[in-house]
Amino acid sequence: MRSRRDLSIGRSPTSTTLKPTNLPILLTPSSSSIRLALLALIFAVIPSTFAAPSTPTELQPEPKQLAVSSVRDAPGLPSNGLVSNGIHLGFLPFWSDEGPRAICTALGSCAAIWGDYWNVGTSPGTYTFAQADYHIDEIQRVVGGDVKGVYAPAVLFSGRMDQWTDAMTTQLVSTVRSINRRGITVWLRFCYEMVSPRAIYQSKRASSDPPSLQNGGWMSYGLQPEEYVAVWRRVTTAIRAATNETYMFWAPNLWNGPVDDSVQGYTPYWPGEDYVDVAGLSVYWFGPERSINQVPETGSFRESLQPFYNLVGGAGSNPLKLKQGFPVVVAESSAPYYFDIPSSSRYYTQQGDTDIQPPLPNLNNYRASLNEPNPYPRSDDELAVKATWIAQMTGNSTAQRFPNLKAITWFNYLKK
Asked: CA 83 to CA 320: how far, in whole Å?
């Protein structure tokens, strides 16, 4: 374990103590235009990404025995926009620094999915869903253009599932219905990433797990599968009684264990075929120790997605007893690039898992976090790290192997 603190570009679950950070945090040089330029460059240099389908590669689809006769459509997903080999690109924008219109301009087209976060508390006044008003005007302008994308807000509840009340459901229903009336299709990622709370995850994760499998859970509503299913069904029933333009987006975090594990597996949290419209998964490339830069290993994305894809697609023994398979979406993903934080930096004492606020740092003043004294090949190249991961998720071989993979959503936040 190396004694240091890190900044990274991507996503962040843990601490700021003097040890390798467990944060997938993505920081790029000093302005949003530079960060978006990096993404534009990534999409330009990957031949099979955001272009016409390429010639089949050496990785062929794995033979599957499907127990279902068909797969549901992904409701509201546009046919145009940023798409590679039939796999759409979505964004969770870093709203405090750039929004959807800036992303559309930088990349030359708009995304199919625009993510957001709604924080919900347990006391009166904390479940008004006021955050829905912060960005909805820009969402309406963007999805009213040539690419009719969907809005995918994630409900982050600070309580346990037995603390979710009918009053919260009523307010949530009112919120999504008002958004639908503005002509916006909603994919509601309700109480997402519920699979393995942090304490359990940290005690059980094998240190030998590949970096792409080291997604931890940290939600207060985790480890409660029966309560989770009951609340999900009540919320779904109420929403469907009020509107037909909000769809339920069931999206756990990656779990590297049996899919039917009684507490941490996917299946205990499955609400039932009649209560889900889209199935998604949070899948990241974190690098070794979640603090060292490394180009993603070949097959990492495939290895991560396959068990979940088989489960919700009705493959093999069809343990969910599905009549139809579900469209699969990578609900969140990134490939963090880490930078060491010197003690003189104003970020050194900043709390972990928090956003870096503008003005953004000039990363020319920070040292990339490498595996000293023997850095991994190309690990000093942020473009290589990110482009490799995007290529794994959207390339032709992935499209062949996972024909029901409809979209990936890029987590574009800057965090410590």
From this structure: 30
**Three-state DSSP class for 364?**
helix
Helix (H, G, I), strand (E, B) or coil at 146: coil
pLDDT band at 281 (very low <50, low <70, confident <90, very high): very high
Q: What is the identity of the amino acid at 87?
A: I
Spatial CA neighbour of 89 closest among 365, 303, 347, 332: 332
User: Quick one: pLDDT band at residue 30, thresholds 50, 70, 90?
Assistant: very low
Task: Quote the CA–CA distance of 337 and 66 in Å, as a whole number.
Answer: 38
- Do you find a cis peptide bond into 307, omega within 30 degrees of 0? no
14 near 21, Cβ under 8 Å? yes
Residue type for position 283: V
Report whether the peptide linkage leading into residue 296 is cis, meaning its omega lies within 30 degrees of zero: no
Look at the block and give the residue holding tokens 């869903």.
129
Number of neighbours of residue 47 by Cβ within 10 angstroms: 12
Chain mean pLDDT for the chain? 83
- Residue 274 DSSP one-character state: G
At 337, list the tokens: 């690039």
Q: CA 349, CA 342: separation in Å to the nearest integer?
A: 10
How would DSSP label each residue in 329-351?
A: EEEEE----EEE--TTSTTTTSP
List phi, psi (to 5°) of 176. Answer: -70, -35
Strand order in the sheet with 414-415: 367-368, 338-340, 6-9, 414-415
Query: Coil, strand or helix: which one is 117?
Result: strand
CA distance 285 to 297: 9
Query: DSSP secondary-structure letter at 176?
Result: H
What pLDDT shows up at residue 416?
81
Contact 194, 217 (CB under 8 A): yes
- Residue 3's nearest CA partner among 289, 264, 228 is 289
Helix (H) or strand (E) holding 148: none
